[in-house]
Write a structure and sequence with these properties.
This protein has 580 residues and is an alpha+beta fold. The protein is built from 15 helices and 31 strands. It starts with 20 loop residues before the first helix and ends in a 7-residue tail after the last helix.
Length: 580
Amino acid sequence: MKVSKLVGVRFKERPADCVIDSHAFSVRGGYVKQVSNGIFSLYTPMKKVTQNIEKIIRQEMDAVDSQEVMFPVVLPGSLWEESGRYQSVGDELLRFNDRNGTPMVLGMTHEEAAVHLAREYGRTYKNYPFSIYQIQTKYRDEARPRAGLIRVREFTMKDAYSFHTSQEDLEKYYDKMTNAYFRIFQRMGIPEVIAVKSDSGMIGGSVSHEYMLLADCGEDSIVLCDECGFSANMEAADTIVDNSGCSAMAELKKVHTPDCKTIEDVCKFLNAKVEESCKAVMYQINATDEYVVVFTRGDYEVNETKLTNLLNEKVHPADVTVDSGLVAGFCGPYKITDKCRVIYDKSLEGIENLVCGANEVDYHYTGLNIKRDIGDVEYVDVSKIQDGGICPVCGKKKIRISRGIEAGNIFQLGTKYTESMNMTYTAEDGSEKTPIMGCYGIGVGRAAACIMEAHHDDYGPIWPISVAPWKVHICCMRVDDADCKATTDAIYEKLESMGIDVLYDDRDVRAGAMFADADLLGAPIRVTVGPKALKNGEIELSTRDKSVSLKVPKDDIIDEIKKLYDKLYEDINSKVSDRI
């Protein structure tokens, strides 16, 4: 490819609406163009990056005996009705009617389609286990698209689905796929990706993990323990609270607390510890508008994913009306109205002397003892684990909260879809049984953005050679110099004949503009051919990350390029796990 023919425009300035680096470089470097909010067209450089990512994914999926298939983008609503998700999934599922009035959906995930495809084949135990995968366009009507390819509405995704006759067999394959995912990200050049325990969300299943690239721009909060290596998404991390050492039991007293509506205001007014206060967070269930009040320790926050999972219902912040019986800002568990559902978080367990709302404007209680004053209650975990908190595995106060970008996910689905969609097989003993499923996803565009986030400098991306759109970028510094152009042409033609993907900047532009574009296009190897060096019989050979900068004899340049090319691949492969 010659830069003079490369479709796309590169920009010097960072776009004002690009918050994170990968989005900024994607726009500046001529990788993407926004069509609509959360919907992008890909120019040649990004298309080549994603093709290289897909090649790695296919090789690793094939290596774990998963067979590539293709599901439709548009699916009948009846298929989603079979699984029960047509109504249960929210507005992110785009529903519409075709010209015949038939309900249809745009596929945002393809569990239903996978079961539909596999039902006939999976009728006998003899065909198990098996796995299928696709790399396909999907659409999720995301409410808040952001960060370029990180959070979009239309995206390309690899999703795989495995089918098994036993939980033991699923777990064996899950381990294989876990290893395959590490290999995929390692081969992409982001061995920093870690696997964390996650919440299964709308996909379902009992066990799930997310593959996270730790990055300050990430939307997810990742819980890590530096002592034992525990890792989990915030939504899936158990909160452990030690309330030993709290104040002794005291008399329950109602106290006038004028204009004190927040925990901080109340504790300051009463000279009390926030750690010995009870905070009320009020919600309503979406489907019924029933009020739900969650009581937590004053310094803890409600984890709404945990709450949703507990209730098996989606919730929204409460609109507190006069008829509700609740008093916003002064709500407490003692003599609370029976018009709401009350939930006690584990962070309150063991505290014998609490400050809490009195369910009356401008009044709070001191000395609340839940067991004495309310009775035996059930404590559940619906709060967010805190930085510096107790690790749920090793029990040490070593929890660290980091930000992360989700690059992939895997789920043990169980029989959620096969049972609801009546997929059965005849077992060896002649009985009818329901197969067990796993599913495994990687967002291709998001993976490209993750790589760019992990590998860039102030001037542009530094693509790992395994995914780079071009492996070698040749800069001809003087196209009007016959020797310079002839030498550059010869190098270009030789590398192309060797099957090396090469980009040749053949334009008559200033050196600064040429190098700026080379930085934005991010090829790991750069060859600079200039008249001055050629007079000494030399050509400049360097790497995009500045780790290598050599002057190579002209006659040796092809051999040296090949050596550097092989070394960069060796560096990638040295960090790739063995297959299991």
